[in-house]
Design goal:
The structure is a homodimer of 208-residue chains. Chain A is mostly helical and 208 residues long. Chain A has nine helices and no strands.
Chain lengths: 208, 208
C-alpha cells in the first residue's frame, strides 16, 4: 500500500487509502442528502479529485452507493454495541436507543434506503448482512452464541418489528423516545415465552 | 352499466365489467408468474381482447400491475378473516394460518412483490393499505375498535414481524407450519405485556 498512484485531491494516496477516502466522503454527503441521489460528481468535488478517478474506483454509481451504504452500516453496527461488558438487558437497551438515535438523525435517508434496497440486490445484500450481524450480536448477548434456526427466525422477526416500529414512529412521534426504546427492549424478552414453538430447548436470560 | 362498449373477447361487456374481467385475468396469471413480469400482451391474450383495449383501461403497465395487486390483496384480506364469530384467539390463529398458506402457494411472487413495492409508490400504497386493514381487523378482533396510536404502532410491528418470519421461514422451512403459526399467534399476546409503554390504558383480552 505504499505505491502512490495519484496526487489528485492535494494528497498522495495509495489505492487503498484513496478508496477509503472516497467512501468516507460519500458517507459524509449522505448524512445530509439521500443515498440514492449520491453522484460521482458530488464525491469528486468534495474529495477534490476528478470524476474519472471516482469511476476508476467505482465503475457504476450503484457500486459507489453500495460501498457507502456498507460503510454507513459498519458505523451503525459499532454504535449499536458500544460496551460488550454490560449485562444483556442493558446492552440491548443501549443498542435499541442507538438505533433510534441513528435513524432520528437522518430519517429520510433510512426510509428511502430500506425501501429502495428491495429493488437493488447490492443494497439488499448490505441490509441482509447487517440484520444477520445484529442477530449474532443478540445471540452472543443473551449467551446463546450458536443458536438453533428457530431462534434466529424469531430474532429476525424482532429486528423487522423494530425497524417497522421506528419507521412508523418517525411519522408523528406520538410516543416519547424513551417509551419506544422500553417497548422494543421489553418486547424481545416477552418473545422468550412463545419462542419455544420455534426453538424448544432455548432459554432466554432474565431481563434483570 | 348497461352500455356495451365492445364485443371483443366474444362477450359484450360494460366498461365496469370489462375492467373487472381484465383484473381477474391478471390475478389468474400472477398465481403462476411474478407480478412484475405481467404484460398487457399476456392479459390481452388470455382475455381474448386486443392489447389496445387493455391499454385503454390501464394506461401503463404499472397501473395494470397495481390494480392486479389490489385485487389479490382483497382476496388475501377476505381469506384472513373467514369467520368473525370466532373468539379473538381463534380468529387470529386462523388469520395467521391463512396468511402462511397464501404465501406458501406463491412464495416467489410475495417475496418479489414485497421487495419491489418499496421502489414503486403505487405498489407500496397497496401494501400499506393492506397493513392498515389488517391492523383494523386485529383491533376489532381484540375488542378495541378505536385504538390509541401506540397500540396501532405495536400492531404494525407485529405485522412486520409476521411478514419477515414467514418470508425467512420459506427459505428452508426448518420448522413445521403449525409451530410457526403458534409462535406468531402467541407472540401477539406476549406483546400485550410491554405494550403499556406505547399505550398505557390498553388491555388485551386473554388468549383463552
Amino acid at each position: 500500500m505504499t505505491s502512490d498512484t495519484t496526487t489528485e485531491g492535494g494528497r498522495r494516496l495509495s489505492p487503498g487509502q484513496r478508496h477509503e477516502q472516497l467512501v468516507a466522503v460519500g458517507v459524509e454527503i449522505v448524512t445530509t442528502s439521500p443515498l440514492d441521489q449520491l453522484t460521482a460528481d458530488a464525491v469528486a468535488e468534495r474529495a477534490g479529485v476528478s470524476k474519472g478517478l471516482v469511476f476508476h474506483y467505482f465503475p457504476s454509481i450503484r457500486d459507489l452507493q453500495a460501498a457507502v451504504l456498507r460503510a454507513a452500516m459498519e458505523e451503525l453496527l459499532r454504535a449499536l454495541d458500544p460496551d460488550p461488558q454490560l449485562d444483556p438487558s442493558e446492552r440491548l437497551k443501549g443498542g435499541v436507543a442507538a438505533f433510534v438515535r441513528y435513524i432520528d438523525q437522518q430519517p429520510a435517508n433510512y426510509v428511502t434506503l430500506s425501501r429502495s434496497a428491495g429493488a437493488d440486490h447490492r443494497l439488499h445484500e448490505v441490509f441482509e448482512e447487517a440484520r444477520e450481524r445484529v442477530t449474532d450480536l443478540i445471540t452472543a448477548g443473551i449467551g446463546i452464541p450458536d443458536p438453533p434456526d428457530g431462534l434466529r427466525l424469531a430474532l429476525r422477526g424482532w429486528i423487522a418489528m423494530t425497524e417497522e416500529v421506528v419507521l412508523e414512529w418517525l411519522i408523528d412521534r406520538q410516543v416519547p423516545t424513551e417509551q419506544l426504546v422500553d417497548y422494543l427492549h421489553d418486547a424481545l424478552f416477552a418473545l422468550a415465552a412463545p419462542v419455544h414453538h420455534l426453538a424448544p430447548a432455548v432459554e432466554f436470560p432474565d431481563p434483570g
